Every structure is written in structure tokens, then in C-alpha cells.
Known about the structure:
The chain is α/β, with parallel strands linked by helices. It has 7 helices and 28 strands.
Amino acid sequence: MVSVAEAQKIIELQDRDYGSELVPFEQTLGRILAEDLYADRDLPPCNRVTMDGIAIQYSSFEKGIRVYKVAATIAAGDAPTDITEESECVEIMTGAAMPDSTDTVVRYEDVAISNGIATITADDIRKGQNLHLKGRDKKQCDVVAKAGQVISPALISMAASVGKRELLVKKLPRVVIITTGDELVDVDEQPTPYQVRRSNSYTIKAVLAQNALPANMLHIPDDMEITRTKIKECLELYDVLLMSGGVSMGKFDYVPRVLEELGVTKLFHKVQQRPGKPFWFGKDEMGVLVFAFPGNPVSTFLCLHRYFIPWLMESKVKSRKSEVYAVLDSDVTFSAQMQYFMQVRVGVNEQGQLIAIPVEGNGSGDFANLLDSDAFMELPMGKLNFKKGEAYRIWPFKKIV
Ligand code: AMP
Ligand code: MG
């Protein structure tokens, strides 16, 4: 048996680098950028007009000119047309390129136009107003996005703007979710009173989807031979096996035995924690990792968030998140020599602090409780009483703000 901190350390030491790959940029949301992105030209690429109106030379306005002859009309996308006299202006639209012979845009609201003559009706005109100058945001060849960040909608927008059809992103591990148990039936089957529907596979898949990580699913009955054959196949086909069930002391819990027979080295079995104590973790000689979680739905859920997602961050498949702490909203007592992961709802108090409201549940089989909770609070081992107002780390599994 290892402590939570030891289990975390052992898993962290098994970080992997799966390299990188080119992916069409629209399909990269949530992935990790593996290259710096550069501006292929100045942003904006020209002096860009930000209001519909007329463009003039400011010096003419300073001299007192208010009436201008409209020399041309410039739409967004047009090559700009110059004025040749200071008493001329051009009508110009938002997004259009400003002619070099003008320097100030007066919006339509401050101009009266009739018969090709524009009269400025406002007094407070500033030189250079309503312009977004060439190269103001980024210069050509500037880095516009650094490698290592998670790809967001804003980054996809930037990739489109700089003409990057494909982005180099960190490669994902090939993951299979394996559930075990003779009592489990699929979602559309009618279970007997002694059976349950297989929910863990879908829970795991959904959490992985939140992390932009696809995975295949497989179910194995509690049969030693089938377990051996199927796990052997998976060790050849995948980088990571995420298993649930079959790792406890039961007569039909074959998973640890079979894994070790197949050459998967046990790095730990059992963690001093509640829920999720029977968690088994190991690797084979090719580096394939096996996270074998206890089947109780809350245990699987906790272990996934507490160990597997941080491993993804360690392996640079997901960006690192800062640690989040919350303040206990009521006293809690926990006497077992275990690190307790308590389900909590998370709110914000008047001081702007995150608060954790304990949610009573019925143990690691009570997955209905997860719907009422937002996070697990990690209450350190060896302490009996946890007081209202004390802050502890939380592991959110929902968006909390
Ligand atoms: P085990 O770890 O195999 O002893 O399973 C512990 C408990 O979790 C049992 O009550 C199982 O029925 C339940 N369980 C195991 N796997 C799943 C699953 N995929 N979906 C829902 N419940 C499960
Ligand atoms: Mg089982």
C-alpha cells in the first residue's frame, strides 16, 4: 500500500512523450500546440479603417476646411485610391485600407453628404482617429502563439488569420477503456435485479472527451482466460489501458494476477485513500501503462481525476492547470487512517473565496451523488477534525466558475 503522495510520484515518473503530428487546424481544439505560430505579415496588414465615414488629411481640418469633394469611394478589400487635393476626401468603409494621402477618418454620424460634397458637422476631430495602424498588433515574423499551450477558439482564430491550415500538435496516447464484471450489461439491455448497467466506460470516455482524448471501449467478463487474451491484445495495440473493476480481493478479481503474468510490472497496488483504495498501476516492458481502477463508480471517477488527468498534464498532452483550493464551509470529522476525498459543492463567498460545501453520500458505489457535487476535496491523512474556514485542495470535475 502506498500513500496518495507516493502514488502520485510513481505515476509522474512514468510521464511519456508521444511526439507530435500535423492536424488540420479546425480539428485541434483542446490539443496542445507543439510549434510556435508566427505572423506571416503585419497585423493588421494595412492601415485599417475602423468606422464607416470619410477619410481626410487632418491638416486641412486644422486650417478650417469643413467642406470636401468626395473623390472616390473605397470598400473593404479595395486597393486604396489617393486624394490629390486637401479639399478632397474619400468615402471609406470599415475594414478598408486607408490611402496614404489621408490620415484621419470622420465617421458618417459627423458628416453630411449630398451631391458628392461632404460637410463635417462635428468639431472634436482628432488626428489619426478611427484607424488601426499597420503592424500595430503584431509585426511580420513575430511569434503570435507559443508552443505548449492548449488550443482555444482564439488560437484557432489566429491560425486562420496567419494562414496555417495545419498545426503541429502533441500526439495523443492510444487509449482503451476496459471494464470488467459479469454483473454488467450494456446501456440498452434490461438488467436483472442482480445486474447493473455498465456506466464506468461511458463516464471515463466522457471525461477523456472533455480533455480532447479519444478512446476505444472493451468489456471483459470475469473469466481468467478471456481476461488474459483480451489484455494481451490491448497491450499490443494501445499506449494506455484504463481499466475498471476486478482489482480487489474478490475470488473473481483476476486483473492484477493476469497483468503480472503478462509481464506488466506492478508499480503499486492499493493506495491509502477513500474512495479508490484497490487502485493498481503498472507498466510493461514496452512502456505501456495500465491504470486499473476499482470498479465502484465513484472510485473510478476519483482515480481518473486525481491520477490520470494529472498524468496527461505531465506527459504534455494537456496543459497544466493551477492548483485550486477552497475553504471548508462546515466542520468535518474523518477518523480512518486514509486520505479522504470528500465530495463537495463549490461556491463563492462574499470575500470572493471558493467555498466547499460537503455533500453527504453513501460511499463509493453512490454515483448518483456525483451529480450533486462539483469537486473532490482532498483532506490530508492523519488529521481527525477539519474545521470550517480551513482551506484544502480540491479536484474539480465540473466547471466551478
Ligand atoms: P469491482 O471493483 O469489480 O469489485 O467492482 C466494484 C463495484 O463496482 C461492483 O458493485 C460493480 O458492480 C461496480 N462496477 C464495476 N464496474 C462497473 C462499471 N463499469 N459500471 C458500473 N459499475 C461498475
Ligand atoms: Mg468486478
